Amino acid sequence: MDCKIIKTAHGSIETPALLPVSAASYGIWDMWIEKKFPAPWDLAQGTVLSLYHILQYNRKDEIREKGIHRVLKTKKPIILDSGGFQFMKKNAELEEEFVLRYQEESGCDIGITFDYPILPGLSLEEKENRMERSIHNSNLALKLKNNKKMLLYSAVHGHNPADIKKYLKSLDSGFDGYAIGSLVPKKRDYNMLINVVSAARNEKPLHVFGITGFPALFALSYMGIETFDSWTYLVAAAFKEYIDPGTLKRVKLRKVKKLPECDCFICGDYDLNDFLEGTSEAEILLALHNLNVFLKEMECVREKIKENELESYILKKAEKNSSIKRAFLIAKQYI
Ligand SMILES: [Zn+2]
Distance from the CA of 277 to the center of ligand 1, in angstroms? Predict the structure, then answer.
């Protein structure tokens, strides 16, 4: 296993990489843009933004006119997801051509096609219909794409290896990578996650949407998956939960008297009381600490891959977190 490099118009991403989803409320986006706090898109190797959130933001036209990097004041790679998952939850959808043009004009580095995710419990007919429409959009985007600098990833869906293989076969060739979704509602089902991701593996980079915690993060890294995204750092902060850098578990701050040790730049300046305040600022500080823990672990993962010691590193982490071991042992069967 090796670390790989994904080259984009705004620099490289060394894999495996966790790219934070920056899906905060707009007041928080503004504070990041105004540089009142370090922004997730600058702390990580890049970020994932959803068109669903951007289209509700008062800077949506500015992003299209000036470019997303100028508005966010960043030089890092930006993945612009079509937001299919969030639109599905609102019973809404976008035209693929609109999505593609917005992605191209905003100057994002990687655009992901508009998809119709599938949820467990759908009728077979509805599931096939949604998968067909997602495939249609992907192939259409490939035909209509003008911006040569932007990489185009096709969304991929399926709850079992047979569906995934069939889906991939129906896609035209020429995508720069694939992004696998529909796994969010089953995120704790490591068997299914790893089985499906393993079936989607091919020679192109694979992105996995919506990773929630360290067990999946270590397992997917071990499987050689290139990128995955997560907004757990934000969700945990919204619930006043602090990721313990030792156990990698979420600690409810209202139930502790003292913070677990952390050497990140946030914890050097702020303490438990700062995180507990009911303000957006407190939420940002806590989210940044949580993100620091994720990013530090990913740095260690890449370092251990280079030293050929990833397995022993993961097993060491698993001593304090049994879910890490469970997910890892499943992933190991597929290697
Ligand atoms: Zn910290």
Answer: 16
With tokens 């905060």, the residue in question is: 24
Reported as a single tens digit per residue, the pLDDT across 215-264 is 999 999 999 999 999 999 999 999 999 999 999 999 999 999 999 999 99
Q: By C-alpha distance, which of 244, 202, 249 is closest to 225?
A: 202
Distance from the alpha carbon of residue 151 to the mean position of ligand 1, in angstroms:
34
CB-CB contact of 208 with 197 (8 Å): yes
CA of 288 to the centre of ligand 1 (A): 8
C-alpha of residue 292 to centroid of ligand 1, in Å: 7
Structural domains of the chain, ranges and CATH numbers in brackets: 5-333 (3.20.20.105)
Alpha helices by DSSP H, listed for the chain, are 26-33, 40-43, 51-54, 60-66, 68-72, 84-89, 96-106, 124-144, 161-170, 190-200, 214-222, 232-238, 272-276, 280-306, 310-318, 322-333
Judge whether 130 and 124 are in contact, CB under 8 Å.
no
Instruction: With H, G, I as helix, E, B as strand and everything else as coil, classify residue 236.
Output: helix
Centre of ligand 1 from the C-alpha of residue 136, in Å = 44
Q: What is the whole-number distance in angstroms between the Cα of residue 252 and the centre of ligand 1?
A: 15
Tell how far the Cα of 262 is from the centroid of ligand 1, in angstroms. 5
Among 320, 323, 325, 262, smallest CA distance to 294 is for 262
Token pair recorded at residue 153: 């990833």
| CA distances in angstroms from 298 to 46, 82, 209, 266, 270, listed in the order given | 13, 26, 16, 18, 24
- Do the strands 11-14 and 5-8 form a parallel or antiparallel pair, or are they unpaired? antiparallel
Measure 237 CA to ligand 1 centroid, in angstroms: 12
**What separation in Å is there between the alpha carbon of 293 and the centre of ligand 1?**
7
Measured in Å, residue 143 CA sits from the centre of ligand 1 at 46
Tokens of 235: 């969700």
pTM check: above 0.90: yes
pLDDT above 80: residue 183: no
Backbone angles phi, psi at 36, to 5 degrees: -70, -25
